[in-house]
């Protein structure tokens, strides 16, 4: 049986919120705005779930910026990967999974340029078998199609089962359940009141990788 692990990217393999905060700090500083605007931007960001065009249209209006929203969005896409980091222990954990016989892929919603930029900048491209980015494929989590693309590229098939690891209760956890996968929820603390239908709940992806590695040893 092929062991397949599908990982979400933002706030699962990488700390997307920290990257956004760094971007906001640079933006605020570069535009001569008050430091309190960083917190405002972080709130507006909504953990990345506010569409970027909406976010940047609001930014343009609030700060009276010249130029087009499209250009702000293009600059954002180019810059945000520079602020993204993946801890070495996460990359090492993914490499260990593959050594142990797992196929590993990233399944992420987002713009192709920014998501691919993050995957490459962090070196994740070197420690996974494949990735599927919604912006490049025209299908988004929780739709089965994006999971299927990732699985196929990783040399596996959804029908053989596997694990989905992510921080979003609907896109990752419900999406993972719907394809018949076991799930591990990365509890980022932002989803109070929602019941994650997950097989395991952890606070960090390295714990999730540990669970997967012990699965192999336990069977
Ligand atoms: Mg996420």
TrEMBL record:
InterPro entries linked: HAD-like_hydrolase, HAD-like_sf, HAD-SF_hydro_IA, HAD_sf
Domain of life where this protein originates: Bacteria
Keywords: Hydrolase, Magnesium
Molecular function terms, GO-annotated: hydrolase activity
BP terms from Gene Ontology: small molecule metabolic process
Pfam families registered for this protein in UniProt: Hydrolase
Cofactor: Mg(2+)
Protein's UniProt name: Putative hydrolase of the HAD superfamily
Lineage: Bacteria, Bacillati, Actinomycetota, Actinomycetes, Streptosporangiales
């Amino acid at each position: 049986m092929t062991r397949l692990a599908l990982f979400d990217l933002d706030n699962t393999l990488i700390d997307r919120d920290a990257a956004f905060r760094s971007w906001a700090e640079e933006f605020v500083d570069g535009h001569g705005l008050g430091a309190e605007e960083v917190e405002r931007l972080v709130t507006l960001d909504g953990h990345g779930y506010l569409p970027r065009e909406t976010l940047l249209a609001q930014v343009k209006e609030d700060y009276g910026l010249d130029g087009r929203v499209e250009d702000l969005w293009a600059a954002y896409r180019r810059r945000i990967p520079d602020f993204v980091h993946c801890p070495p222990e996460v990359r090492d954990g993914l490499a260990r999974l593959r050594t142990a016989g797992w196929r590993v892929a990233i399944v992420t919603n987002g713009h192709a340029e920014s998501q691919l930029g993050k995957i490459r900048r962090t070196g994740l491209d070197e420690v996974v078998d494949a990735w599927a980015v919604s912006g490049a494929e025209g299908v988004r989590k929780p739709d089965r199609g994006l999971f299927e693309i990732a699985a196929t590229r990783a040399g596996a098939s959804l029908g053989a089962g596997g694990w989905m690891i992510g921080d979003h209760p609907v896109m990752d956890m419900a999406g993972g359940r719907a394809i018949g996968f076991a799930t591990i929820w990365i509890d980022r603390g932002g989803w109070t009141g929602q019941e994650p239908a997950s097989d395991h709940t952890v606070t960090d992806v390295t714990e999730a990788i540990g669970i997967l590695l012990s699965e192999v040893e336990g069977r």
